[in-house]
Structure formats: structure tokens, C-alpha cells
């Protein structure tokens, strides 16, 4: 198994159901270039967008058009869309969101016929965060 994956600690088949198998790996604590926690949605969202732009510039080099786009998004769009959500008595109540919801991460339980979602990259965020493209 490549070094980028946490090393396995065990695998096998469940005793009660021979069609159910498991694979366990060591927990891999992650840290690094992710934006730090903040209590303000605007700041959290801005930090995340800033990292996207920094990664793009690092990978592709400086570009005038991208710099203008970055400035407009950071100084106008985010402020106009998000600031009103937390001013004049408005308050966002974060909720746990999946963050990678698409048809490849959904299924139906064969026994209960209820929907299943999996492969989450969960965080607490605005309740409409999951609806973004």
C-alpha cells in the first residue's frame, strides 16, 4: 500500500454475516494548509477561498485576470453575500454538513430501503453549504 495511505491494522469477515467484510486503518490526524477555525462564517469562507486562490497561483503562476477576479470575489462578492447573514441581529446556526454530497456518495440500504450517505468530509457550516455546486 502506498505511503500516502494510513497503514492497515486489521481486516477480516464478520462472524455473523460472511458477506460483510471489514478493513481497519490507523487514524490519521490531519493538519496543514486547511483554514483555521473561526466563529464567523464570513471569515471561514474567505479563508477557504483565499487558499484556493493561493494554490492556483502557486500551481499556475501569477495571472492578471485571475488577480482581478480574486480581488473582486474577496472584496465585493463574499462581503455582499455573507456579511448580511450575520449583521443586524441575524445569526447563522452552524449545522453538520457532509461537504462531498453527490450521487456517487449515496445509496439505498437493501434491508430498510432507506437512503444512505457516506464518504463524508464533514464540518459545521451554513445549512445551505451542501447545496452549493
UniProtKB/TrEMBL annotation:
Catalytic activity: N(6)-D-ribulosyl-L-lysyl-[protein] + ATP = N(6)-(3-O-phospho-D-ribulosyl)-L-lysyl-[protein] + ADP + H(+)
Pfam families referenced in this protein's UniProt entry, alphabetically: Fructosamin_kin
EC number: 2.7.1.172
Alphabetized GO MF terms: protein-ribulosamine 3-kinase activity
Residue ranges of the TM segments: none
UniProt cross-references to InterPro entries, sorted A to Z: Fructo-/Ketosamine-3-kinase (IPR016477), Kinase-like_dom_sf (IPR011009)
The protein's name in its UniProt record: protein-ribulosamine 3-kinase
Record organism: Penicillium cf. griseofulvum
Amino acid at each position: 500500500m502506498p505511503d500516502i495511505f494510513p497503514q492497515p491494522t486489521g481486516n477480516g469477515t464478520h462472524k455473523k454475516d460472511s458477506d460483510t467484510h471489514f478493513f481497519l486503518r490507523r487514524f490519521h490526524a490531519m493538519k496543514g494548509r486547511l483554514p483555521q477555525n473561526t466563529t464567523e462564517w464570513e471569515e471561514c469562507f474567505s479563508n477557504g477561498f483565499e487558499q484556493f486562490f493561493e494554490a492556483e497561483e502557486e500551481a499556475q503562476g501569477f495571472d492578471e485576470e485571475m488577480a482581478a477576479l480574486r480581488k473582486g470575489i474577496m472584496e465585493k462578492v463574499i462581503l455582499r453575500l455573507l456579511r448580511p447573514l450575520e449583521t443586524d441581529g441575524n445569526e447563522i446556526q452552524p449545522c453538520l454538513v457532509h461537504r462531498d454530497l453527490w450521487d456517487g456518495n449515496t445509496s439505498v440500504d437493501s434491508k430498510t430501503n432507506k437512503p444512505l450517505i457516506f464518504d463524508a468530509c464533514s464540518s459545521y457550516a451554513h445549512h445551505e453549504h451542501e447545496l452549493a455546486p
